[in-house]
């Protein structure tokens, strides 16, 4: 096995484990947060799991630079610990050769992340949005919360003063402006002293109340009732139907930045919207460009020897520097959308740092008594 394949294999092993472990941790935390889709919005567990699974790609993409940093450092340490680097140097291999291997790996990881940010993630996030939009509410009792105005259902607000056992309620107020209740076609306000949801969660039974209906000319008609029922099947949540910027295809947001698709949602000529569009473009293309820079920073570890006193110190230093570069790339992308000049500076940073770090490495290893 050649050194190129061997180093790539070791890196890939560390990278896969690191990315998987970090993704599972972050995704698990998100799963807890997404439980609101069931407990608050009343979606089915199947919708909850499908939606959560479709966001996994976004989580992994976000963690790729950090996983690359950790994996590269671990791979170099492993080679140094097993005295494999000494064997390579003794065989006449120049350290720049290993630097070039790391650069090629970093470019591969960079293009993988660009593919995920520009193509895979927008489509999966848009699909997850569609699933929420088109799903019916399955846990209807979650809409009836004690002393809380719940507007989960589009065009309808629900309030109950007291919630008892077996889905029984007291002092119920429902404001329906979207015609969600099957028996009501106009804007209506419903008051009831008591009520309950049937066991199959398909109907709402109300007692001792009235319905205030508002017609097209603003007249209010009041209908009193001792007992009435409303069909709750088919209710859908008040989920944003139009895709957000991060859920929009890359081609469309580029056209929006060029003011060619101003008819699209989240695309307008105002400065705030255009700033968000530029920021999203830079997130998809700019952040991955810093991965090779992180790889070059890790390459400085090749100049240290495990038997040197400062070796462990250098490992921490270069790891922290690599992490700071990634953190600064994430933070500064928010300012890159202010103008195209800011974006140009954002992209110029890795284009400048890359040659500078590589030249520093060449100069550092130039006078070693080794040859290619």
- Helical content, roughly? 40-55%
Number-wise, the strands total 5
* Biggest sheet, spatial arrangement of strands: 1-2-3-4-5
Classify the oligomer: single chain
Return residue spans where pLDDT drops below 50 for at least 5 consecutive residues.
Answer: none
Global mean pLDDT: 83
Instruction: Give me the Rg, rounded.
Output: 29 Å
Q: How many structural domains does the protein architecture include?
A: 2
Instruction: Please state the overall shape, judged from the principal axes of the Cα atoms.
Output: elongated
Q: What is the number of helical segments per DSSP (H or I, 4+ residues)? A: 11
Largest pleated sheet: 5 strands, antiparallel
Termini, distance in Å? 18 Å
Find the structural class using helix and strand composition. alpha+beta
> Strand content of the residues, in percent?
5-15%
| SSE string | HHHHHHEEEEEHHHHH
């Amino acid at each position: 096995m050649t050194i190129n394949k061997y180093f790539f294999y070791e890196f890939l092993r560390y990278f896969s484990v690191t990315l998987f472990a970090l993704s599972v941790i972050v995704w698990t935390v998100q799963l807890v947060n997404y439980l609101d889709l069931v407990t608050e919005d009343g979606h089915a567990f199947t919708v909850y799991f499908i939606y959560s699974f479709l966001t996994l790609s976004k989580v992994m993409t976000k963690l790729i630079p950090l996983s690359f940093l950790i994996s590269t450092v671990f791979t170099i340490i492993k080679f140094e610990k097993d005295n494999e680097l000494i064997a390579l140097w003794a065989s006449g291999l120049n350290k720049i050769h290993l630097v070039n291997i790391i650069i090629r790996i970093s470019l591969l990881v960079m293009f993988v992340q660009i593919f995920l940010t520009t193509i895979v993630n927008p489509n999966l996030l848009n699909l997850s949005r569609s699933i929420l939009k088109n799903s019916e509410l399955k846990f209807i009792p979650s809409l009836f919360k004690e002393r809380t105005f719940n507007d989960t259902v589009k065009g309808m607000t629900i309030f109950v003063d007291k919630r008892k056992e077996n889905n029984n309620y007291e002092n119920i107020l429902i404001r329906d402006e979207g015609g969600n209740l099957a028996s009501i076609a106009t804007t209506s306000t419903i008051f009831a002293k008591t009520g309950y949801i049937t066991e199959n969660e398909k109907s709402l039974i109300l007692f001792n109340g009235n319905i205030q209906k508002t017609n097209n000319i603003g007249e209010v008609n009041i209908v009193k009732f001792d007992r009435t029922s409303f069909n709750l099947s088919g209710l859908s949540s008040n989920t944003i139907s139009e895709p957000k910027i991060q859920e929009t295809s890359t081609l469309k947001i580029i056209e929006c930045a060029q003011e060619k698709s101003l008819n699209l949602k989240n695309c307008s000529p105002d400065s705030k919207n255009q700033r968000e569009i530029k920021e999203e473009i830079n997130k998809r293309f700019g952040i991955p460009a810093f991965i090779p820079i992180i790889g070059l920073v890790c390459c400085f570890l090749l100049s240290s020897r495990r038997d040197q006193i400062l070796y462990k110190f250098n490992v921490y230093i270069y790891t922290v520097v690599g992490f700071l570069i990634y953190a600064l790339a994430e933070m500064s992308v928010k300012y890159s959308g202010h103008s195209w000049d800011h974006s140009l500076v954002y992209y110029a940073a890795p284009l400048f740092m890359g040659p500078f770090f590589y030249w520093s490495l060449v100069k550092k290893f130039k006078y070693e008594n080794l040859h290619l």
